[in-house]
Structures are given as structure tokens and as C-alpha cells.
């Protein structure tokens, strides 16, 4: 794909790589949660399955948002995903999901620092909003874990 426009913001390859790492996590999370939705069994599993689906869709939207920003910054969104671990019980689903969110949260904090250092305030602002949603997901999984 040829690029017609030069972005007004120039960022380092390091920051672009970090955005791609985030895309890899978000898409992996999306698949992980969606397959957990499909595989959720038992009364408890069925009761909360919708939360997995809802979160899976939210992660895919975040991946799309990140990919758009990265593309604008002259990067190419990756197709290499972070490891996907679905798990075999509701408790295991939630433990894996909590870890996935923690990984994302750690990375988003680093991206915010890096983007600010490079004067890319829009990426920093965008990631702050994504981080807020990730903290909500983390909170959701943690709360659900207490109930299983
Ligand atoms: Fe999330």
C-alpha cells in the first residue's frame, strides 16, 4: 500500500514497535476472550459468558484504534499475535485474562511515557483512554475471580 500523506508527527521506531506490541496483545486478548465465551460451561460459566464476549469485542475495537494510529504514524500493523491461552475452567479463564490485562496495562504505561517523551501528545492521550478501559477489564476479571 503506498502512502500519500506524510504525518505531521514523527515518532521513533521504538514507539511504533510498542504500538505493535499493544496490537498483538489486544488481538490475542480478543480471540482468547471470544473463545472463552464460546467454551464457557456450567451454570456459572453461562451466567458470565456474555462478559467475555463483550470484552472480546472491546479489545478488537482497541486493536483497530491502535492500528489506525500506527498507520498514520507510518507504521504497519502486525499480524503476529501475543500468545493466546484460553484455559479449561472458568477459574483458569479468569486467571489468564487477569494476566493478559496486567501485561497490557504495564505496556500502556510505558507507551504513555515514551509518547510524552517524543512529544506525541495524541498517542499519549489515546493510550490513556485505552488504559482506563484496560483497568476496568482488569477490575472486572478480578471481581469475577472472587466469585468463582
Ligand atoms: Fe482489556
Explain this structure.
By secondary structure, this protein is mainly alpha-helical. The chain is 76% helix and 0% strand. Helix 1 runs antiparallel to helix 2 and helix 2 runs antiparallel to helix 4. The longest helix is centred in the middle third of the chain and has 31 residues. The radius of gyration is 16 Å and the shape is elongated. The protein starts with 12 loop residues before the first helix and ends with a helix. The model has no long low-confidence stretch (mean pLDDT 95). The chain binds fe (ii) ion. The site of fe (ii) ion has 6 residues, from helix 3 and helix 4. The site of fe (ii) ion (FE2) has 6 residues, from helix 3 and helix 4.
Which properties best describe this structure?
single chain, binds fe (ii) ion, mainly alpha, 148 residues
Helix-strand sequence: HHHH
Oligomer: single chain
Low-pLDDT windows of residues: none
How far apart, in Å, are the first and last alpha carbons? 48 Å
Number of strands: 0
- Specify the overall morphology: elongated
Summed up, the helix count is: 4
Brief summary:
With 148 residues, the chain is mainly alpha-helical. It is built from 4 helices and no strands.
Set out the fold topology.
Layout: H1 13-39, H2 42-72, H3 90-117, H4 121-147
Helix pairs in contact: 1-2, 1-3, 2-4, 3-4
Fe (ii) ion binds at residues 29, 59, 101, 104, 134, 137.
Amino acid at each position: 500500500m503506498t502512502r500519500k500523506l506524510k504525518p505531521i508527527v514523527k515518532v521513533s521506531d521504538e514507539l511504533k514497535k510498542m504500538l505493535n506490541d499493544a496490537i498483538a496483545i489486544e488481538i490475542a486478548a480478543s480471540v482468547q476472550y471470544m473463545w472463552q465465551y464460546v467454551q464457557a460451561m456450567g451454570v456459572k460459566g453461562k451466567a458470565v459468558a456474555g462478559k467475555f464476549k463483550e470484552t472480546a469485542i472491546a479489545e478488537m475495537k482497541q486493536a483497530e484504534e491502535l492500528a489506525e494510529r500506527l498507520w498514520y504514524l507510518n507504521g504497519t500493523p502486525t499480524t503476529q499475535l501475543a500468545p493466546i491461552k484460553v484455559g479449561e475452567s472458568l477459574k483458569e479463564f479468569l486467571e489468564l485474562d487477569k494476566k493478559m490485562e496486567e501485561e497490557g496495562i504495564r505496556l500502556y504505561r510505558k507507551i504513555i511515557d515514551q509518547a510524552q517523551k517524543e512529544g506525541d501528545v495524541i498517542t499519549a492521550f489515546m493510550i490513556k483512554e485505552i488504559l482506563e478501559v484496560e483497568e476496568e477489564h482488569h477490575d472486572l476479571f478480578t471481581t469475577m475471580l472472587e466469585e468463582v
